[in-house]
Amino acid sequence: MENIFPALVCPARWGTLMVCTDGSDEGQNAVAVALELARACHSQVIAVQALHVVPEFQAVAPDLPATLGKAAQENMAAIKAAADKLGVALKTLTPEGQTPHAAIVATAEKLRPDLIIIGRCGKTALARILMGNVTARVIGHSPINVLVVPRGAALAFQGILVASDGSTYSQAAFELALAMAKQANSRLIGVAVATEEGEIIEAQAIIRRMLSAASLAGVPMKGVNPQGVAPDTGIVQQAIKHEVDLIVVGSYGRTGLKKLLMGSVTERVIGGSPCPILVVKQPG
């Protein structure tokens, strides 16, 4: 795993990072991001690769569990070698018996890392505009903030975009983005989308509140109010326009559906973003 973040600055106190991999290219890229972030933040890393065999598959391929176990051991050995090369403390886990997302969430609940890092999609990829099924379920059930890394994406903090709809989850996302921008001396872009004409005044008020808080914190910030587009479209378009390195969003807000895994807007932002996305789970 090559060094792709030579100037990475640590933007937060992340003492323990948990990275999830399935051996896919997306999973390996998430591992590379985690190791470089750990080096910058002097964090320890927990690498998790869940081993789960569908009973129907095992019935026709009895040797499948052993095959998957061997592949996981080889993958973890390669990750350990990369961590040692970077001077990063690493612990590896290969939980068995649960579905991948359940194993990841259970591990997070037990070990309480400061951040979970996962690829956007792996071997269980859904439609193009969405994300991997495992990733979606981890975000939906995890009590810990999740950093989602698209395939091939690097991580940096020079430009951070934070989206808000005025909800408590958006407020938590904004507070974290503001603290990160101050720590890393980042450009901060605040976005509140007005899908309909009747939402413009409220969206403008959200931006004013964000600008006021940023000013009090001494963080330069630009606020934008995209209008007449879907929230996810407006957010992704602004991320591309301003060439940001990271999008920060709440797990769901007013537009979220509690019966689903997460807010539909958040899910679509993750599916369409060209850069990593930090999903903030804790409401303010």
Describe this entry's structure for a reader.
This protein is α/β, with parallel strands linked by helices and 284 residues long. Helix content is 43%, strand content 16%. It is built from 9 helices and 10 strands. It has a 10-stranded mixed sheet with strand order 3-2-1-4-5-10-9-6-7-8, with helices on both faces. It is globular, with a radius of gyration of 19 Å.
Shape: globular
Q: Helix amount, in percent?
A: 40-55%
Helical/strand content category = alpha/beta
What order do the strands of the largest sheet run in, or round the barrel if closed? 3-2-1-4-5-10-9-6-7-8
| Average of per-residue pLDDT values | 86
Query: Can you write the helix and strand succession as a string?
Result: EHEHHEHEHEEHEHEHEHE
Radius of gyration: 19 Å
**C-alpha termini separation:** 37 Å
Task: Give the biggest beta sheet.
Answer: 10 strands, mixed
Low-pLDDT segments: 122-131, 253-262
Number of helices in the DSSP assignment: 9
Number of strands: 10
- DSSP strand content: 15-25%
Gist of the model:
Helices cover 43% and strands 16% of the residues.
